[in-house]
Amino acid sequence: MTTVLPERGPGGDVGGGVGADEAALQAAFDAAISADERIEPRDWMPDGYRATLIRQIAQHAHSEIIGMQPEANWITRAPSLRRKAILMAKVQDEAGHGLYLYSAAETLGVSRDELLDKLHSGRQKYSSIFNYPTLTWADVGAIGWLVDGAAITNQVPLCRCSYGPYARAMVRVCKEESFHQRQGYELLLALSRGTPAQHAMAQDAVDRWWWPSLMMFGPPDAESAHSAQSMAWKIKRHGNDELRQRFVDICVPQAEALGLTLPDPDLRWNEERGSYDFGEIDWSEFQQVLKGNGPCNEQRISQRRRAHEEGAWVREAAAAYARKRAAAPSNEDGRR
Amino acid sequence: MSGTYETPGGTHETPGDPHGGRDRPGHRAALALGDDALVLAQRLGEWAGHAPELEEDVALANIALDLLGQARTLLSLVGDEDKLAYLREEREFRNVQLVEQPNGDFAQTIIRQLYFSVYQELLYGQLAGCRPEDATPVAALAAKAVKETAYHRDHAEQWTLRLGDGTEESHRRAQHAVDALWRYTGELFQPVEGLDVDWDNLRATWTTSVRSVLEQATLRVPEGPQSAVWAAGGGRQGVHTEPFGRLLAEMQHLHRSHPEASW
Amino acid sequence: MSETSQQHRARAEWPLWEVFVRSRRGLSHTHVGSVHAPDAALALRNARDLYTRRSEGVSLWVVPADRITASSPDEKDPFFEPAADKAYRHPTFYEVPEGVRNL
Q: Which InterPro entries match (chain C) (predicted)?
């Protein structure tokens, strides 16, 4: 019996880990994966598996909280009170999803502070899509429809990811996320059917967000560094290209129903494949944005850092208060 | 006092008031309370993505959403919620000046919330406590919202204690906020036409509650006046502070840029 | 980053609390995740705001994560094996004549 946490920390003390022991543990892990069992926090797991999960869950969590910014940009200007309420709730959900995911990452033995440090110093990434600006109200709709749509396509399979806490967090996220996509679609529909100026605003937003949202699925499988191993570990269930194709096939009829066009002259139905063919993605843009040269990289990360730094005195105050209270013999909270 | 400062447009037909019914006492009351909730929700909405900790981002958004919900219900009692929110001029807003004060630092936001939520909980409590046969639509909203408000008050209290009795820096910032916002608290007790409230009792209870929280938080209760010396009046008469014009400009700009559009 | 500022930061880092939600009356509390909070009162508030935003619960527990004592995976056998051979604890162990119901 140990007094370490059930859902926390590397179970690395297990076995002392050399030679035959290690091989047996690896075999047990492999068996669990191939039997489609979930790996839980205190189970033995290969270092690579742990590192991959930390990287991926952290990146996912960071994306949620950086992703609050482009939409929060419009909360104060939302053109109706109903839209304002929806948008506030959505941005709040994103903070919540960030928290679920940090919570899942913490079961792997890293602290949220460490992860935030890595985000703030650029050592961990967030989804590049959030380095694009929200220039008009219609962008809020385009993000809901396309960006959240792409995210959902990516995330639904993660609900069956081999790592238990991540899969459970994703179940929660996906359940809540479905409203996000719908509100975006509905918002665009209202614009598309609205005045000519509103319609133009909607088309302009879709023109700007379409290609970046296709990039969200990551580079083609052939060039993707982590894909194959992640698939073997059942962290990932489908290839980037497969998911991207699924997304395109879903979007084309939805765009038609909206009365908006997708900005790709090569987009056409391929009878033989039973899917839509689409044009070449400009991967050089993707690489540039990834490197930090997108329109908003600097702005997003500075705002994040500033919020964290400006909040330091508040976090310290609450911690100091808690210490004083813990030291005091009788405290209010204890009696409640 | 009430009715002395009619708005310039008060008696005309305005977009939000197609039937001219805003002069009815029930409508005045709904407008005053609805504007309080709307404007504070707007301010809290500015925090999104900027809070000192992610958990607090979620908490502030919760409060903002509750207030926005109250505002929508109250404004809808008077007319079209969007016309009222987006097409009225500054002088036609009836919110107290306290809620329009900028967020400032986290201490400023918390103390503003403390002053307001204690007030709102007491006010809604009194309204909700009326005899069923006297229940107005505003009282019905109050009965529903008083629980939300109690939760907001608790949030503000918890944080006031932590900031006041936390570190030297947090104490200094909290005290500054307590002092700076004090001058906007007197207006809270100005009778609002159409509300059956014992205002003297409200003031006394508010003062006791706030004093007790501040003292527990090791903060000094200000001794200065609770309102600015200015005969022009306050928010309930449509007279606001400088930051309010910019708040409205930001809130209304998009809606006004597309007249007749629906969203 | 200097050592002192790191210590400073470490002090300010809010501890982790595990969150348990009773989703409706009649059910047990179930672990749903964690929150950070400086103390119990705020942990409860944070948990309420985060995990019951859509009225998913009627009751909440928060427990400091470092106060939980757990069995560890390598002890799985001694902890859980003994129960495995007590099939008689499960109703399906018993044969019931055909036609007998409500048993």
A: PaaB, PaaB_sf
Give SS3 for B166.
coil
Assigned domain for C61 exists: yes
DSSP H or E stretch at residue C17: strand C16-22
Reference A127, options A94, A100, A104, A157; nearest CA is A94
Domain span holding position C19:
3-68
Chain A residues near any Cβ of chain C (below 8 Å): 1-8, 11, 13-15, 40, 42-44, 92-93, 96, 99-100, 103-104, 106, 111-113, 168-169, 172, 176, 312, 315-316, 318-319, 321-322, 325, 333, 336
* Count helices and strands in chain B by DSSP H and E runs: 9, 0
- Among chain A residues, the shortest Cα distance to B50 is held by A307
CATH number at residue C19: 3.10.20.520
Number of separate domains in chain B: 1
Q: H/E element holding A301?
A: helix A297-310
C82 in any annotated domain: no
Inter-chain contact A319–C14, Cβ cutoff 8 Å? yes
Per-residue pLDDT of chain C (103 residues; tens, 9 = 90+): 344 444 445 456 799 999 999 998 999 999 999 999 999 999 999 999 999 888 778 899 999 999 998 876 665 566 666 566 677 777 777 777 788 877 7
Which member of B58, B158, B162 has the closest CB to residue C49?
A: B58
The reply to whether B152 falls in a domain is: yes
Q: Does a structural domain hold residue B260?
A: no
| Contacting residues for B116 by C-beta, under 8 A, at least 6 apart | B36, B40, B98, B99, B188
Distance CA A65, CA B49 (A): 7
Q: Which of A66, A169, A75 is nearest to C51 (CA)?
A: A169
Could you give the CA distance from residue B150 to residue B144 in angstroms, rounded to a whole number?
A: 11
- How distant, in Å, are the alpha carbons of A41, A182, C36 from that of C65? 14, 37, 10
- Residue B59 near chain C (CB below 8 Å): yes
Of chain B residues 243-262, which have a CB less than 8 A from chain A? 250-251, 253-255, 258, 260-262
Structurally, chain C folds into a number of domains equal to: 1
Q: What token pair was written down for A178?
A: 């479905």
- Cα A168 to Cα A101: distance, rounded to the nearest angstrom: 10
How much is the pTM?
Answer: 0.89
Domain assignment present for C45: yes
Q: Residue B198's domain spans which residues?
A: 4-255
Q: What is the CATH number of the domain that holds B37?
A: 1.20.1260.10
Per-residue pLDDT in tens (0 to 9) along chain B, 263 residues: 333 333 444 443 444 444 445 667 789 999 999 999 999 999 999 999 999 999 999 999 999 999 999 999 999 999 999 999 999 999 999 999 999 999 999 999 999 999 999 999 999 999 998 887 778 899 999 999 999 999 999 999 999 999 999 999 999 999 999 999 999 999 999 999 999 899 999 999 999 999 999 999 999 999 988 887 777 789 999 999 999 999 999 999 999 999 989 99
Mark B88-103 as b/e (b = at least 16 C-beta within 10 Å). bebbbbbbbbbbbbeb
Distance from CA of A203 to the nearest CA of B (A): 15
User: Has residue A55 got a pLDDT over 50?
Assistant: yes
Of A3, A100, A336, the CB nearest to C33: A100
C18 Cβ under 8 Å from any chain A Cβ: yes
- Let me know: does B193 contact B241? Beta carbons within 8 Å: no
| Domain-located, residue C91 | no
**Are the beta carbons of B105 and A307 closer than 8 angstroms?**
no
Residue A15: closest C-alpha in chain C = C74
Model ipTM value: 0.92
Nearest CA in chain C to A166: C33
